[in-house]
């Protein structure tokens, strides 16, 4: 039954739906089909009878995933969705059903049971902790009004409509509508750090014109009706209306107190419960994100399918071998023969025979691989978060990993999509210049000067409208008790307030009363008060449609010229305008706004947008502002290094074209050698199509001669998507090294990412941003990266990984990405390799036993080969191995190119490991075979004949030694932990050999192993020197190809590096102007460093070089009378150079 049909069925049987929700088999989405109706204090009108319809449940929360009833079926279902687990389950069932199984079913059942049990215990423990947390929260006491009195009840017993008391520094138990606060204006402040990560105070106020209660006693018998929208996940979306005594008040997000936020400043508040329990916005946002599938996981599924096909091939080959053997040797009556049982039914006989071999060779699929991968990924993310080089001291913020499923994709990024503001820049706005009355004015050191003049403007009163616009049109709040007096959600608005304050125009805050909200300003010592009537809230879509008019043609040209001039500096520009509204017009707009705010239908937002556009039309132009948003540290070098790593970078921004281009030039997103191509300001679809075709032909013809940068604006891009020209646009951009998309909306950002992601080559995409407008593209990309910025934590919450600064992206990709991918790819190849060696020996044993489906290995060896005997070293390898030094990875991006496009799991690498595995198994088995056929150890000194258990044990020991030595060869950074892991594996094998070898296993325990006894077998093997000589020789012979391959690869890499250095000297790099000075002639420095013996001497030598260079610059600056600014700049470059040298040597 699919989900829609299940929903329809459960709606008809609500009791069954409630049962499913309680047991955890389904989750309540918190959605309803109509608006929510709530009665304050749960006092219902006499004529209202449908009370069951508005019973929205209690306030119990449940973050746990399982219940006692649902744990077993739900957990088993989740585990057996995995191909490997399901495969082993089917194999066990087949083994049980076979008439004479080739191995004890418990040899497969016990490892599978261990894996499933381990995973179940881990998940049960995690869920138990969630249950404990839920119980603690649900049983916390709160104070509410019940039956006309304030009483204490448990949080879980809160119902919608209850009036709740919350004291300062306490969190809100549910989503509440503010009704009363013990402050002058009835408002309060909250922090929402637990919801969106924002630490600044947010104002929450009473509904507009809502009466102020004198005392909490007035709330006891308060009656009213609240109609609001159904529960939704948007933290910033709430609309409704409140009806009390025939008065209506429209409700917005500013009146809502969310669960998870904390009360500040006000000593106590009272609010009415709106959303409770699972319907609160906090709980609706706590759902698990849809899991992403990494490139290795996709490859892993292909590998499993290949080995399943190989398994069937082995089984079929053995079937034909069995038929041929039995036809040739008809007198071998002692061999197993099940054919008579099927009375001549050949098909059924052949099918059963194939199932025999499938059961015998089932270990070709590594059962413990998934546990090892999960452990490696989980612990790997801890190393990511513990990296001190990705910790930001100013913000006291380490890196954060939200999703461990796609660690390795950090090493596969081909396209990087980045926001500009707050991502490439600091998002710290500094007011620089403004345009007014046809002139441009500069602002420095608290003085306003006309551009080009040294005299400050003395009479600022003539700029009254401009200053009032800056001081009035914002949402900044004043809190004199906080560390930061001004609490602003917009950095631009904060810069306006600071600019005005420095000039003597101080915003003093808002004063609220029953009927009005007064905005107070100290205007050069004069108190000005303005009544705040309405706020037409900003959004990125509507801002593009606002209309500026009533300015002369000449003034319009000057204004646009000033805008372009500001943009060429890379500054953010905002236009200021105003108009006078007559009282009757205001009353008309006011009535329409009230109706729109009270409208709870889906048309509400569209109606408000139309109203806003109407009110904002026919404005009188005042001027415009220029605010500088500085680039973050090391942005340029980060972008250059990422491009040298083969990553193509796209900047997606909402800024205007000139500003975006200037920033792209200054941050080295655009190289001076790049040929810029523009696709902007297109209105005609035919012209756009022609331009796209001509651009595509041009880049194809010159792709090997030029480097391209492509610039497109949001308006043109909307035509591209509207008329399905995305393929043409994408094909052009695939030839470009850098792309800039300006004037972009959030939805367009996601569309662009999706367009590139769906290319034929299926490249791995990565998107990075810091604000709510970046969430869509972060979620659309394969890897989403968030920046802990000043625009809240929306991006961080939606991302897979997050850190404080853009410069940390370089280390995240070039270091952690490389290590994640290289380690995990070797882990996957090694697991398949060692199982292939193990099973191939069983294949070679089949002809020796006349294809009688005889097992080579004892059941204990088959049970614990993957789980204990070979698992410890590879897990440590997956956590600690460093094929290349971390310092080299960070300093030289070329290493990143060597792993992109899944190169370490390519068909060549997969075939190489499998061929080596085939060779290793061949040597391990036939060395033992020839040892036995040579009569060296077939008969013991006491005359006893060696049995098949001893034979299989010798083969198993050789397999174990060879696969361990194979991994040892792969290690580059061998360490104490690696030796410890080998010791643990050896210890596990010795323990499992000594115990069965020292005692005769009694009958009840033989049910879990083969009937063959291991008693004294291991000790017999120890007594034969020829066996140990054979093991030594066979292991040495088996690993000769591996050693030769590694020698060849090392020599080839050194030759390739020298060749690249020579080519770098002869051929000018495509990005030579971008390469930092410390990377030029890098090969010369490397050769010089090789000749040094002491790291201390290296540092001292470079320090002396930097000191001399600094002295020469100082002398030159004195000679040429350079400015202090230039000298300081050059000295800072020397210091930076020395710092990079020092960092290189440290590694």
UniProtKB/TrEMBL annotation:
It is a multi-pass membrane protein. Its main location: membrane. Belongs to the cation transport ATPase (P-type) (TC 3.A.3) family. Type IV subfamily. Residues 796-1053 form the P-type ATPase C-terminal domain. Residues 50-108 form the P-type ATPase N-terminal domain. The active site is at 419 (4-aspartylphosphate intermediate). Its cofactor is Mg(2+). It is found in: Endomembrane system; Membrane. Residues 139-200 form the P-type ATPase A domain. It comes from Brachionus calyciflorus. The lineage of its organism: Eukaryota, Metazoa, Spiralia, Gnathifera, Rotifera. It comes from the Eukaryota. GO terms for biological process: phospholipid translocation. This is Phospholipid-transporting ATPase. Mg(2+) binds at residues 419, 421, 770, 774. Its EC number is 7.6.2.1.
